[in-house]
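User: Can you help me understand a structure? I only have the sequence.
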Amino acid sequence: MSKSVKKRSAASSTGPVPVAKLSQEVVHVPEPRKANGGSKQSRVIAMLASPAGATIAGMMKATGWQQHSVRGFLAGVVRKRLKLSSKEVDDTGVYRIASTNSSKAISRQSKRRSS
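Assistant: Let's start by predicting it. Here is the structure, written out as tokens:
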């Protein structure tokens, strides 16, 4: 007899598991994910919030991500929620989160209040 035949015969001899037995098992429901203070995304945002800013290479080293992943995070997450600015320093792009106290934001608020 081959091994596969032995496996099939052993499996068929145990029979099906009763449904009632399955319903009595305790099912572990995971808790909702909480923001991890030491997550890779939070590290990148902290780097961007620093006055010195961050380079793509620095973010890659801090997170272990590849270059396209860092750029995707900047485009897909950071730019949608925060104002990101960049400038060239020694042929290297330095990214930083622009301050939220910009004159545009202040002038918009004052215009709305005066109406």
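Now, to help you interpret it: Confidence is low (pLDDT under 50) at residues 102-110. The first strand starts at residue 54 and ends at 55. Let me know which part you'd like to focus on.
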